[in-house]
Amino acid sequence: MPCCPGRPAHSRSRAFFRAAATLALVAGGLSGSLGTNALAVDYVNPLGSTDVQKVYNNGTAPTNFTNAGTSGGLDASNNPTNPIAAFNNSGTINGGFSAVNLRDYTTINSLTNSGNINASVYSFYLFNHADITTLTNTGTISSEYTAFIIGGSSSITTLNNSGIIRGIVGGPNTWTRGIDNQSGGTIGTLTNSGTLSGYQYGITSGGTITTLNNSGTIIGTVAAIANSGTIGTLNLLTGSTITGGISNSGTIGTLNVYHTVTNANFDSTFSVPTISGNQPGTTNIYVTTPANSRSVSVGGRTVGIDTSGFGANGQSVRQVTGSISRLANTNGLVQSIGAKIAMQNADPYATTSDLCADGAPAPAGKVGNSDFWIRGFTGRNKVDATAGSVDYINTYSGGAVGIERDWSEGVRAGAFIGAGATDNNLGGGLGGSAADLIFMGGYATKVMGTFFAKVGLTGGRGNNTGTRNIAAATPETALADYDSWYLSPEASVGKVYDLGQRLGGTLTVTPVLTVRYVYAHQDGYTETGATNNLTMNDSHSTTVEERAELKFTYATEAFGDYRMKLNASVGGLGQQNGGGAMSGALLGAPLSFATPGNQNFTGLVGGLGFEISRGKYTFTAYGDYVRLAGGNTDISANAVFSVKF
Fold this sequence. Notes:
645 residues, single chain, twelve-stranded antiparallel β-barrel, 59% strand, elongated, mainly beta
């Protein structure tokens, strides 16, 4: 292939250029003429000099050339054993035939342009073993025909463009290219994050390009990239735009297409360019999403979902079922020895020490004594962001009515029914979920002296809704509607220790060990409201929770007809969370992922409460605090009103 194929016939011939270079041995602005080693030291082009500069180094030290003003074209030729170390332009270089002429074993170690380099024909002309190790352009390199021509065993090891490289003349039979890497030319790594264009071609290559990375724009009306040589790896990175397609009559070893999104819920298209002629040996498509997102790619579209919401739903189930389970605390579960001796025979409704911070006064243990109660609860659970989940806040509340009675000596049992609601809000505006619940439960307690054992079973059904806010060209909101149910058995044991009379009242401490299991099932569903709706299959989650607590109770009758108890508790908690992987379909393709939050946790628990009773009526209020490792905090409150009959 000729060194200058298609070059327009005009007066700017190579002979003219050589003559101009020869005539320019004396650089404008310099006094005297350049001697044999005149540029063996750094040379700064004087401001305002427009002459053609003869830049060379045949001395013993590398030359650093700097232009911050205005210069004519640059002719750089030298022995490769004495390279030009640094060539820096922040001003303007205006060339005729070429702006920068590199020939005959020229070597420039580093060439940086943050200004403007312009020419009538070639901005950069590399021929006959001319080499640039690193070329970095953040400015503008433009020519009326071809910005870069690389041929005759010349090379650029690394070419980084974040500015503009362009051949700007249009029209038929016009040789306009951004870069023309001719047969025998080599580019090691070409990285474009700016704009690289020619009226006909952005890049032509009959030589070798080892790696071509594009995250910017490459434009050509005939083809953005025309390859008749070898491109080892073509990486089209996030943000890549190829206008004009790719023509390949040579070899492209590997095509990698990368797409990156920053929103976990998204529906996005990306460009997979059309390649005419020979196809790449291997084509790979890579989509990078946030850690809390799972995506599916089909053709040039990729759709992702945030998985945090599924973990938030599981956490919501654990918290609300815990509060529901605590509704089953038996009133007057265990009476302290001291209170029993002092008050049982005197007053069948006397205040007694109780196992739980939320207990109410008990009857004297006569068979048939009953309580009717109304209980309400509310809570707020905040979970910090992790590597695989955004932060979220879950609020929940509910209430129930129940009845319990003494069925035999030392055995007390009851049942209740109630309703509640939960609401989840995900961080980052990703969406949330809500549920309306109906639940019921039963419980029984056996007291043997100061030791007790309790079992309970609660279950419920929920109607769930969910929203996903989707980042797309036109933002969308996907809606989900599905049912769920849960079942939760629980068992606890403890022993009441009477610490005697203190400050006019009775003080007790009760070590309690509680084990709770939760199985929750969610029905499958298909969203509505989005262009590409998510379908989820049935799923389930499980939780095993252990609590070890010390519960302190102080009971007094120091207020006339009113009796009061103060309650406090402290302890530790462990959770083992599991369940099957979530599965479904998106864009018609299968999708599966592990549920965030399905791991083991440990933490601390504590509580404070009080109880006031008068005659048959009792009001109790208490609050619980739970702090799990990893930034999971739950604060809940309960209130109880009970009537004995």
